[in-house]
């Protein structure tokens, strides 16, 4: 019995050590920047891609399922922005909603919505915009089509395009979340999710 208890304790210590070493149970010294909202720092941009925590706009349903290591459960809801299929998942500690063009394995992701945590909802709009611009170079404010006279500083939900990435945009909704989308699948023109 005592040998078994020692073995369990040894396995537990080894697993905890491995988790700390790879940052899963890391502390503030692990390189994590606790002053920034991770909904923004998990945005990834590449030569021709925009994504969040491994989920890339324009990638297929099958590729997303491989990334998240589980099947997506799709809901069919017609949308004025084009995509009719939606999936809700919990990924990297956030509620994430995906809009896809269809239900087949090759259907492409058109929009990713990342709901802000309570912590991120505590940031003022100006702080979120500044952090977003710090994280992603080449953001350009795009005035809303239906809100003439609104400027970047007065826009309650600013939309940004990326200089190096034509056809993609980000919509920042303080107190709600962040949309990444292909232009034409514009969340501002629909009722959202």
Distance between the termini: 55 Å
Major sheet characteristics: 8 strands, antiparallel
Question: What is the SS-derived class?
Answer: alpha+beta
Compute the number of structural domains.
2
Unreliable residue runs: 14-34, 189-193
Binned strand content:
25-35%
Helix content: 10-25%
Characterize the overall form.
Answer: globular
**Sheet with the most strands: spatial strand order:** 4-5-6-7-11-10-9-8
Number of strands: 11
Describe the structure concisely for a colleague.
The protein is an alpha+beta fold. It has helices at 2-21, 38-41, 61-68, 118-121, 125-135; strands spanning 43-45, 50-52, 55-56, 74-76, 85-91, 94-100, 109-115, 139-142, 159-162, 165-173, 177-182. It has 2 domains: 1-32, no CATH class; 38-187.
Task: Walk me through this protein's architecture.
This protein has 193 residues and is of the alpha+beta class. The protein has 2 domains: 1-32, no CATH class; 38-187. 24% of the residues lie in helices and 28% in strands. The chain contains 5 helices and 11 strands, in the order ααβββαββββααββββ. It has helices at residues 2-21, 38-41, 61-68, 118-121, 125-135, and strands spanning 43-45, 50-52, 55-56, 74-76, 85-91, 94-100, 109-115, 139-142, 159-162, 165-173, 177-182. It has an 8-stranded antiparallel β-sheet with strand order 4-5-6-7-11-10-9-8, covered by helices on one side. The protein is globular, with a radius of gyration of 20 Å. The termini are far apart.
